[in-house]
C-alpha cells in the first residue's frame, strides 16, 4: 500500500465514518436494522450536487442534504411505528423509492461536480494542499459529529433514546412516547448518512444514483470491526470505536487493492472477496487470541 | 502467539511487494465486471502486445461501488504509473477528481474509455480541445445508423420499443437522442425501464403488443439480462435489435455495431500516443471509427423478420 493510498483510505474512513455513526445509532442504540441508508446516502449526494450546481453555498448544501436524509429516515420510522410495517421491510421500501426520487432530484442518474466550488475550496484557500483538504475537512466533520452525538446522548432526550433501544416497555411506563423517539432517531441517523453522502459526492467529483449500493454492508462491517477492536465499554467509546472501525475497514480495502502475490495473482474482480476475508480476519482475530491464550 | 502473528504479517507484506519490471506502466480503474467493459480492457491490452510494446498493467475493478472507485483512484495516483486509464463514467470521474487534487509531482495523464458523454460527465469542457491531463474515447452511439438499420428490416416501422435502466447515465443520453431522432422520422418511441436485471423480463413483456420492434442500447443492466429479452422476442415474434454486436451472438436480430473490443483497440492506440509523449490535452476526444453489421439469421426467423439481401451482403458476420 502506498502512502498516498493509505492517506486516501483514512480520508474515506472519516467521511464514511459519519455514515457509520448513523448506522450505529439505529443498529445498536435503537435496535432498528435500517436499510434506508442505501438510498439516503445518494439522496444526500443528489441534494448537495443539485444545490451546488444551482449556485448554493457548498456548506449550506450540506444542511439541505441532512434535512433530506432526516425526512427519508422519518418516512421509514413512520411506516414502522404508525403502520406496523416490519422495520426491515419499511426501510427497503423507502430505499427503493429513493432510487426513483434521487433520479428525479438530479433529473438523471449522475450529476458531475468536477471543477465546481466545493467545501474543500475554503480549506485549500487557507494553504492546505488539495490532496490533504479531504482528510482535513472529513476529520473535522467526523470529530464534530461524534462529539455532538455523545453530547446529545447525555441530554434528557438522548437518554430517552438510549432507553428506548434497551427497554422500550420501561421507558413507555415512564410516559415517554417511544414512537416519537424512534422517528427522531431514525431521522437523525439518515440525516447523518445523507450528510456523509453529500461530502462523498463533493469529494469524488459526482453524485451518482448507484453510489449507495453496499452502504449498509460497509456500515455494519465498520460497526462490528470497531466494536471488536476498540471495545464498547461506554456509549462515548462505542461511537469513537465505530468511527475508527470505518477507518480500519477502508484500510482493509486499500490493502486488498494493493495485494499482488507473485506468481499467483488475484483477479481484480476478487476485490469484494478479499475485502470480506480481511474483515472476517479482523472479526475473528480477538476470538482466536482468547482461545490460544486461555489454553 | 505474537511471533506467529509477526510471521504472518511479514510474509503477507512480502507477498504484497514483488512487482515485475516493464517498459511502460499503466494503471486501470475499471468500474464493473461486464462483458463489454472487459472487452475494452482486452482490446487495449491486445493492442500493446500486437505492437510489441511492453506494458506492466495494474488493473483494479471497483465492482460497481463508487466508494471503491474513489479509493482505487487514490491507489492509482500512489502507484505513479505512466498513464492512468479509467473504464466507464464513474471510474473516470473518480480518477479525474483524484488527479485534480493530487500534488503536481504526482499528476499523470488520464485516458477515459467507454464514457458516453464526457462533457456532461464533467471530464472535458471541449471535445476538440480537452486541455489539461485528460482525454479519451467516447462510446456515444450513432443512433441514426441504428434506426436506419432497423428500418431496412422493417420499412413500416411505426412504434419502436426501447429497454433501458433509467439509472444509467449512458442510456439516458442515448434515449434522449433516440427520441429526438425518431420524432423527426415519425416513429413513436415506447420506453420500458428496469432498474435491476431481475426486472428486465417483465419490462420486456410490457412492450409486447405495443411496438413493432425493440431496440436495446448499450445498457449494462439490460445487456446483462439479454436472454430474458430474447425469450420474450421469440415467444411473441417481436424482433429485438441491439446496439452492440456481442448481443447478436446471444440472439438479437442484428446490431450496427458497436464493438467494445475495437473500442479497446482504439483506446490502446491513443494510450500509445500519450505514452510516447503526446500531450493528452491536445488530443481531441475520439468516437468509434468503424461500425460492423452483425446479423443473426436464426433468431431473425424466430422473431418473424427476414433480413434484406442487401444487408446480408454488407454484414461482417452472419450467425
From TrEMBL, chain A:
Transmembrane spans: 6-27, 86-105, 132-153, 174-200, 206-226, 238-259, 271-288
Listed GO MF terms: transmembrane transporter activity
The keyword RNA-binding is assigned to this record: no
Pfam family name, one: BPD_transp_2
Domain of life (superkingdom): Bacteria
Protein keywords: Cell membrane, Membrane, Transmembrane, Transmembrane helix
Predominant place of localization: membrane
Keyword Protease: no
Topology in membrane: Multi-pass membrane protein
GO cellular component: plasma membrane
Compartmental location: Cell membrane
The protein's name in its UniProt record: ABC transporter permease
UniProt source species: Desulfolithobacter dissulfuricans
Upper taxonomic lineage: Bacteria, Pseudomonadati, Thermodesulfobacteriota, Desulfobulbia, Desulfobulbales
From TrEMBL, chain B:
Signal peptide: 1-21
Coiled coil: none
Keywords, alphabetical: Signal
Gene3D superfamilies tied to this protein: 3.40.50.2300
Name of protein: ABC transporter substrate-binding protein
Native source organism of the sequence: Desulfolithobacter dissulfuricans
